[in-house]
């Protein structure tokens, strides 16, 4: 794990301990997680270009979320763990650099606590809320990256 990834994961964990999504400014509504709320912006009016590693990882995240069926806390924990593993692998292997990498790091720093909320949800309603936020966050990511 490189220093940037370690820092992003540390900051994400700290945000979760300090209040999770409330600390991130996402509030109670998944619809609040716009690209701007996540600290993401376009690259001079254009989408940022992902490397193949990150593009494939994000496609995997979208597929896992789109096909998700949360019918138990166990299924929520399993999905959260799969999503976290995919993100960790992406961050450890991506070749993105410069401003595009900084945008990716910003996203992951705010995305990871929501994955943790899904994996550790105390009840099915909380898990479904976390999944809704994850879907909105991925849509926001997809609006600034390709």
Would you spell out the secondary-structure blueprint of this structure?
Blueprint: H1 3-17, H2 52-66, H3 73-93, H4 98-119, H5 124-144
Notes on the structure:
The protein is mainly alpha-helical and 146 residues long. It has a single domain (3-11, 51-144), classed as Up-down Bundle (Four Helix Bundle (Hemerythrin (Met), subunit A)). It is built from 5 helices and no strands. α2 runs antiparallel to α3 (73-93) and α2 packs antiparallel against α5 (124-144). The radius of gyration is 14 Å and the shape is globular.
Question: Would you identify the regions where 5 or more consecutive residues have pLDDT less than 50?
Answer: 1-32
Number of strands: 0
User: Approximately how much beta-strand content do the residues carry?
Assistant: under 5%
- CATH topology term: Four Helix Bundle (Hemerythrin (Met), subunit A)
Describe the main β-sheet briefly.
none
Report the C-alpha radius of gyration, rounded: 14 Å
On the 0 to 100 scale, the average pLDDT is 83
What distance separates the N and C termini? 24 Å
Total count of domains: 1
């Amino acid at each position: 794990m490189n220093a940037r990834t370690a820092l992003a994961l540390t900051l994400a964990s700290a945000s979760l301990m300090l209040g999770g999504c409330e600390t991130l400014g996402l509030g109670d509504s998944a619809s609040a997680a716009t690209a701007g709320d996540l600290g993401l912006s376009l690259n001079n009016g254009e989408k940022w270009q992902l490397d193949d590693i990150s593009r494939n990882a994000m496609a995997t995240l979208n597929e896992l979320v789109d096909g998700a069926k949360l019918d138990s806390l166990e299924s929520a924990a399993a999905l959260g763990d799969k999503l976290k593993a995919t993100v960790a692998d992406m961050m450890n292997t991506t070749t993105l650099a410069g401003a595009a990498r900084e945008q990716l790091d910003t996203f992951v720093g705010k995305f990871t606590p929501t994955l943790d909320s899904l994996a550790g949800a105390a009840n099915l309603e909380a898990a479904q809320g976390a999944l809704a936020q994850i879907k909105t966050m991925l849509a926001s990511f997809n609006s600034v990256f390709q």
